[in-house]
């Protein structure tokens, strides 16, 4: 659990540094910085999504995941959790608490580093990948904390649960997470990252409820799990 714990602590410390030390950035500068972050995240997400080898699976995963997510209303649940935490802070967190909590939580949990790093941490006691991820997440947390507030620090909770859960269950789930599964899950997760970047651009009436797309990440795992039992649907 050392790797997941260090990753979570890096997010908390760096988000707080961004929130309190960099506080008071002029609105004009904050606006252009948010758009710069948004464009960068869109690029990173699209670049990661291009690693997939099954485009049809990617599309089906996004559509099926969106339907499941909307039915369950994951976005609503996560925003209510953020609002509850903000109320416990006496409403001093600012209006972006839920946005920071949800956006940062999804961003830090998606991607192959979170999965592979957690597996290495649990199976081999090798925390190097999660330590490297902690540096990346910390740098992002400083910027996110400055623009979205203390909610970013609270995103460390789902990150710790997600990565810690993988690390603790690594022996049992190792066989279920082949390189093919991780690659396709990461590609879907990268599209969600791109959607977060798109939301940062504040396109009028076009905000994507990214949390409702989370189930899409697990559709490739389901496909590869059933692949040996059913006739192949996707070539390769």
DSSP helix count?
Answer: 12
Low-confidence stretches: none
What's the order of the H and E elements? HHHHHHHHHHHH
Shape: globular
Domains, number: 1
Strand content: under 5%
**Total number of strands:** 0
- Mean pLDDT, to the nearest integer, reads 82
- Based on CA atoms alone, the radius of gyration comes out at 18 Å
Helix coverage percent? over 70%
Distance between the termini: 36 Å
Largest sheet, in brief, is: none
Question: Which structural class fits the helix and strand makeup?
Answer: mainly alpha
Descriptive report:
- It is a single chain.
- Helix 1 runs antiparallel to helix 9.
- The model has no long low-confidence stretch (mean pLDDT 82).
- This protein is an all-alpha fold.
- The radius of gyration is 18 Å and the shape is globular.
- It is built from twelve helices and no strands.
- It has helices at residues 2-21, 27-49, 55-72, 74-88, 97-109, 112-124, 128-148, 151-154, 156-168, 170-173, 179-200, 219-227.
- 42% of the residues are buried.
- It has one domain (2-227).
């Amino acid at each position: 659990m050392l790797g997941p714990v260090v990753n979570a602590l890096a997010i908390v410390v760096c988000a707080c540094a961004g929130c309190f030390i960099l506080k008071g950035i002029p609105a004009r500068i904050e606006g252009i910085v948010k758009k710069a972050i948004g464009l960068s995240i869109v690029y990173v997400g699209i670049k990661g999504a291009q690693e997939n080898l099954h485009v049809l699976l990617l599309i089906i995963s996004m559509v099926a995941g969106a339907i499941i997510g909307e039915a369950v209303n994951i976005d609503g649940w996560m925003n209510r959790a953020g609002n509850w935490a903000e109320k416990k802070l006496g409403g001093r967190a600012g209006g972006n608490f839920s946005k920071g909590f949800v956006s940062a939580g999804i961003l830090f949990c998606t991607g192959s580093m979170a999965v592979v790093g957690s597996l290495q941490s649990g199976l081999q006691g090798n925390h190097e990948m999660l330590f490297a991820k902690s540096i990346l997440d910390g740098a992002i947390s400083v910027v996110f904390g400055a623009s979205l507030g203390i909610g970013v620090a609270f995103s460390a909770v789902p990150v710790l649960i997600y990565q810690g859960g993988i690390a603790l269950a690594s022996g049992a789930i190792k066989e279920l997470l082949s390189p093919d599964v991780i690659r396709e899950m990461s590609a879907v997760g990268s599209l969600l990252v791109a959607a977060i970047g798109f939301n940062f651009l504040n396109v009028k009436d076009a905000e994507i409820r990214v949390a409702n797309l989370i189930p899409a990440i697990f559709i490739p795992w389901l496909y590869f799990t059933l692949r040996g039992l059913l006739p192949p649907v996707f070539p390769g």
